[in-house]
Amino acid sequence: MKKLRYYFRTIEQLPALLFTLKWLLIACLVGVAAGSASAFFLISLHWVTNYREENLWIISMLPLGGLMIGLSYHYLGQNVVKGNNQIIDEILIPQNIISMRMTPLVLFGTLVTHLFGGSAGREGTAVQMGSSIADQFTKLFGFRSRDRKILLIMGISAGFASVFGTPLAGAVFAMEVLVLGRIRYDAILPSFLAALLADYVCQVLWGVGHTHYQIPLVPAMTPQNLLWAVLAGVLFGLAGMLFAKAIHFWGSFFKRTIAWAPLRPFAGGAVIALSVYLLGTTKYIGLGVPTIVDAFQEVLPLYDFAVKILYTSFTLGAGFKGGEVTPLFFTGATLGNALSSFIPLPLALLAGMGFVGVFSGATNTPLACTFMGIELFGIEPGLFVAVACVTAYLFSGHSGIYGSQLLGTPKHLLFGLEKGKTLFEIGQLRKKSRRFKKE
Question: How far apart are CA 217 and CA 199, in angstroms?
Answer without folding.
Answer: 28
